[in-house]
Amino acid sequence: MVYISRKEHFNAAHRLFNPNWSEERNKEVFGPCANHNWHGHNFELIVTVKGEPDPDTGFVIDLKVLGDVIKREIIEQLDHKNINLDVPFMQGKMASCEILVIEIWRLLDQALSPLTEARLHQIRLYETERNFVDYYGE
Amino acid sequence: MVYISRKEHFNAAHRLFNPNWSEERNKEVFGPCANHNWHGHNFELIVTVKGEPDPDTGFVIDLKVLGDVIKREIIEQLDHKNINLDVPFMQGKMASCEILVIEIWRLLDQALSPLTEARLHQIRLYETERNFVDYYGE
Amino acid sequence: MVYISRKEHFNAAHRLFNPNWSEERNKEVFGPCANHNWHGHNFELIVTVKGEPDPDTGFVIDLKVLGDVIKREIIEQLDHKNINLDVPFMQGKMASCEILVIEIWRLLDQALSPLTEARLHQIRLYETERNFVDYYGE
Amino acid sequence: MVYISRKEHFNAAHRLFNPNWSEERNKEVFGPCANHNWHGHNFELIVTVKGEPDPDTGFVIDLKVLGDVIKREIIEQLDHKNINLDVPFMQGKMASCEILVIEIWRLLDQALSPLTEARLHQIRLYETERNFVDYYGE
Amino acid sequence: MVYISRKEHFNAAHRLFNPNWSEERNKEVFGPCANHNWHGHNFELIVTVKGEPDPDTGFVIDLKVLGDVIKREIIEQLDHKNINLDVPFMQGKMASCEILVIEIWRLLDQALSPLTEARLHQIRLYETERNFVDYYGE
Amino acid sequence: MVYISRKEHFNAAHRLFNPNWSEERNKEVFGPCANHNWHGHNFELIVTVKGEPDPDTGFVIDLKVLGDVIKREIIEQLDHKNINLDVPFMQGKMASCEILVIEIWRLLDQALSPLTEARLHQIRLYETERNFVDYYGE
After folding, report:
1. Number of domains in chain B
2. Complex ipTM more than 0.85, yes or no
3. Cross-chain Cβ contact C131/D1 below 8 Å
4. Which of B109, B79, B92, B93 is nearest to B8 (CA)?
5. Which CATH number fits the domain that encloses residue D75?
6. Cα separation of C83 and C95, whole Å?
7. Nearest chain E CA: its distance from B138 CA (Å)
8. Residue B11 and residue A85: Cβ atoms within 8 Å?
9. For an interface test with B, which of E44, E48, E59 has the most B Cβ atoms less than 10 Å from its Cβ?
10. What does each of the 138 residues of chain F score in pLDDT, given as a tens digit?
11. Strand partners, B4
């Protein structure tokens, strides 16, 4: 079993905000991350799949295929967008990295399953160089 | 003459948009950077000052003083903010890195002049790891 | 279960030295790391906790709380210090990264337990960009 | 149990090419990676071993010993070489990162076993900053 | 005058070799860089242009235009190629970074001049993270 | 004229301390950097020389020669050392980066002059990823 990873990036705006709470409660809990007029990040996304290398190619998965799936399913929906307002799969959800990484797993798992025997292993999402989250599908 | 540099960072949202142009013209020129609902970045700011080391301290400038000035004058005004909407010194200006770096120079030069004999030499601003601008005050 | 990580850094001096051994034996085993007058590093510390995102906040843990705990419990005790001489929790212990990372786990686990249902998952400590250690509490 | 890692690098040329296939099939599957005249990379290799710290040294393994083994067994055979043509342990194998990382594991495991009670845990190989593979020996 | 920079990358094989010299002389001068079967690198290319920001766009140059020119003129000719064998503009020249950076300047200066009033200022080429060259056109 | 740069690193302990001042004055000016028991850093040193590429080699300077000079003159004297106590060329001087970079220039200029027509252009010294100094010899 070999694990292979591909890093992609996107730039997006977001805001941490619970619509069931008052503005004061949001400010108190989320601090500057609740800024009414949004803020943003350069996100780095690392997708890891695992499987046995194909004897004919030496590949667990063709990285071009993996890259294309990530770009089509995730990057095109998030890059230069507002995560709270512009991204269909985040509607009605908190725009935190924890929630985002679970949704990214769900979309990639769905898109990769018909294409490859390799299985999704890990999603890592860097919000900044100093803050990042991991999700393993469970 | 020794040059000493300090790196600080801020996260912000922005949008490239010329209010004198139609929506179509903005889309055509700025592409996804004109996204109506904003996008954002982790900006890295490197400030360089030059001067002769003080014989008593070995310092061109006390980096704590430099860091405090950068934080007070620049980071507190930009971090977790919308550059177009929330930042007084960017009102009525294009929110491009080129314009931002000129304004950062102006504010830092003003704030540092009374504090030190060291002179501001360069401002470098990274919008992403792959795009950055430099300004030398002229 | 989502894993969330926060990176902090500190600068410190240390020396690898076993007081039960002769100077020669120390030199032989630890080489330049035994230098009598110390040497030092920019350490990078990555702390990972795991848990389920809170439905109201989208957070596994408030990163501000996590950052504050790391700073108070670990960074303030190690930054700009001599690990062998100045750090109470390292007294009588070898100042290697392997020992340091176990002690950091112990202190953070103790400090985080009363504050959060999220559990400490991993401590990673970079001594240099090329040397690092991980500890998972067992 | 503490995990300790050492990063080393090498520069090498390679080509993805299945000799049982036509030139056209190779181009179709491997794209520019099949370029007849080779291409190359700065590879980064991270080797992780795990074990209990020795009470006399605080070491899981002497990093100088680990570094020397990696350099002698792996780096000297790969650095400034052509992976397809010059590297004995890759003869008759696909020069993909997936295959390379398995062979590196085999050689390091063999070389480290007689020297230390620490066990090899993970091999990570970066082909570029954006593409990397991991192998855990099974 | 603002300076704006764009980073692009390419992977290539090369060999340092003077065809007027004996194999022995080449080995003596270039060491492992003369390896007959090539070696390779992940090159990072940073292109800096300078000019005055356009009042309508805030741009010194549209970075999309700059990126497209770099990709068309330079990256497509070098990426996944053998610098000695596959690259027309390097025929009959030493495949060192010093020579490469001069040729890159020549091609980019020629391609950018008709497109923009901004002038090429600097080309930086990283062969590895530790070795890089700069050229300013004179 | 091409500029070529080589990065090397060293780990060292130091302390900012003016022996003509009281302990209180030192604490006041240098803060935690005055810690009596030292602290330390992973320093990164980038040395840039400039010259015309030799037509036979394509080299401004043989990077192996440059690397060897930097290691012999600078790294061996600073690595795993105490800058205040162990380094002959820093005796009686403030152990700040500003002073260190001037001394490094002096030693390298002296060592390189008889070996090459290339001239030393810049010394950059990173104390941390966020603090660095440059010196151009004047």
Report:
1. 1
2. yes
3. no
4. B79
5. 3.30.479.10
6. 7
7. 6
8. no
9. E59
10. 999 999 999 999 999 999 999 999 999 999 999 999 999 999 999 999 999 999 999 999 999 999 999 999 999 999 999 999 999 999 999 999 999 999 999 999 999 999 999 999 999 999 999 999 999 999
11. B49, F133
